[in-house]
Amino acid sequence: MHGHDETITKHEQLLQYIESLKIGTKISVRKLAKSLGVSEGTAYRAVKEAENIGIVVTKERIGTVRVEKKPRNFSEQLTFSDVVGIVEGHVLGGSDGLHKTLHKYVIGAMKLDAMARYIDEGSLLIIGNRENAHSLALEQGAGVLITGGFGTSKEVKLLADQLALPIISSRHDTFTVASMINRAIFDRLIKRKIMLVEDIVSNKTKMNVLKSSSTVSDFDQLVRETGQIRFPVVDDWNRVIGIVSLKDIEGVSEGQSIEKCVTRNPVTATLQTSLASAAQIMMWEGIDFLPVVDRNRKLVASVTRKEVLQAMRDAQQEPQTGETFDHLIWNGFAEERDEDGHIIYHGFITPQMATDLGTISEGVLSSVMTQAAMRAAKYWSGNDHVLDNMTTYFIRPVQIEDSVIVRPAMLEMTRRTCKIEIQMTHQNHLISKAIMTLHSIDHV
């Protein structure tokens, strides 16, 4: 199409560039940004998108690598073996195919000819005690999950072995196994969505470190080379013993060792620490720098608060996948303005919010009030917050399908904290009330 190149977005350009790389090429966000003249945030988003498409993977200690594209399926590539574990099943036949992945499941609550239209290669048919359907599914290239603890005939088992397509039996009913599989899929999606420290440090190859025997002039030289003002201090085995910053060496002469200036036993993170936890740790401890260590406290990388927050902001721009409990609880609430222009949230009490007794769970009501406070605090300050403390009062019961209004009111706000009063009402009657102190994790 004429003129298309002029209108191509930076994001598309980056993706095309990544796709053009040879299989096995290592990809660094920093280098990508430099070579194509874009910001690291833009490059980072393109790499994440390439990961979503399946043309690159990020591996621990190796970094991000260009790979052959695998079919990307809604189920995050569950294998039949995963399914056996999820549904507490046992394998009746076709165990040579347990490593195969499935891309969808079909519930066999229909006539055979209709079923045949839905089953294709790589499906999983969930069905009860219907042997003709078992063999039909295998012939179409699908695995079979038999519910209710039923078995199948010797012929079907032999066919499963021949085709290396598993037949699995689970004592649970159809609805339960479908829920179990869905839950496992969502758990995987959510886990994949949560960014870890390793996601932002895998491309940092050179580490700037000092030994306790290093001098102040060694420190000064590192500052000049890197522009940073704090560094991890390691022993001869590369184990972290402390941190030293510009502030610590004030007034110490150039030739002197930094040993006495080191802040010992620093707070550290691991590659598997989530970015949100790293931000929260730094906020609580009042620090801007975290050494990243392995199990033996050996230094593998370091992150700054700025890098962590930037990566979290970038991640928030991406569409959310998978429903956490918080999402599920908040699904029925909408933001509005009352007649005075104040933010209010209104929604319905759903059956899922009830306890076994039919009363409404106080934990769920607390979650609704907390989420309303977090959203209001973000709206008022532009920052993300974590809950510091909360005092909650439950004043009167509320029932399923009652409509409720949640009103956050700002009591006090500083750069670091936010004190909010939350009231939940039903038809102008007070149901519950909370006072919360939130702490900003964006405050640097």
What topology emerges from the helices and strands here?
Elements: H1 4-7, H2 10-20, E1 26-27, H3 29-36, H4 40-53, E2 56-59, E3 63-66, H5 80-86, E4 90-93, E5 104-107, H6 112-118, E6 123-127, H7 131-139, E7 143-146, H8 154-163, E8 167-169, H9 174-193, H10 197-201, E9 210-211, H11 216-226, E10 230-234, E11 240-245, E12 263-264, H12 275-285, E13 289-293, E14 299-304, H13 305-316, H14 325-330, E15 334-337, E16 343-348, H15 362-381, E17 385-394, E18 403-413, E19 417-426, E20 429-440
Parallel strand pairs: 5-6, 6-7, 7-8, 9-10
Antiparallel strand pairs: 1-3, 2-3, 4-8, 10-11, 11-12, 13-14, 15-16, 16-18, 17-20, 18-19, 19-20
Helix pairs in contact: 2-4, 3-4, 7-8, 12-13
Describe the structure.
With 444 residues, this protein is α+β, with helices and mostly antiparallel strands. It folds into 4 domains: 4-66, Orthogonal Bundle (Arc Repressor Mutant, subunit A), CATH 1.10.10.10; 80-193, HprK N-terminal domain-like (Udp-n-acetylmuramoylalanyl-d-glutamate--2,6- Diaminopimelate Ligase, Chain: A, domain 1, 3-Layer(aba) Sandwich); 198-315, CBS-domain, CATH 3.10.580.10; 325-440, Roll (Thiol Ester Dehydrase, Chain A), CATH 3.10.129. It is built from 15 helices and 20 strands. It has helices at residues 4-7, 10-20, 29-36, 40-53, 80-86, 112-118, 131-139, 154-163, 174-193, 197-201, 216-226, 275-285, 305-316, 325-330, 362-381, and strands at 26-27, 56-59, 63-66, 90-93, 104-107, 123-127, 143-146, 167-169, 210-211, 230-234, 240-245, 263-264, 289-293, 299-304, 334-337, 343-348, 385-394, 403-413, 417-426, 429-440. Helix 2 (10-20) crosses helix 4, helix 3 packs across helix 4 and helix 12 packs across helix 13 (305-316). The longest helix has 20 residues, at 174-193. 28% of the residues are buried. Residues 1-7 and 70-75 have low confidence and may be disordered.
